[in-house]
Design brief:
With about 55 residues, this protein is mainly alpha-helical. The chain is built from two helices and no strands. Helix 1 runs antiparallel to helix 2 (about 35-50).
């Protein structure tokens, strides 16, 4: 069950990363696409870390 939850979490993170990179790619004057994607993954990792440490 834990492996399934981790797989789902990884897939959600990949979709978030891809979506943010695509959005930044469509509007390159806003920010660098890879920076936006990594910032989104960092935010997602922070949220997951806070939830799992409780």
């Amino acid at each position: 069950m834990l492996a399934l939850a981790l797989l789902l979490l990884v897939l959600v993170c990949l979709v978030l990363f891809g979506g943010l990179v695509y959005l930044a790619h469509r509007h390159p004057t806003w920010a660098a696409p890879i920076g936006v994607g990594l910032a989104g993954l960092t935010l997602m990792g922070t949220v997951v870390a806070v939830i799992t440490t409780r």
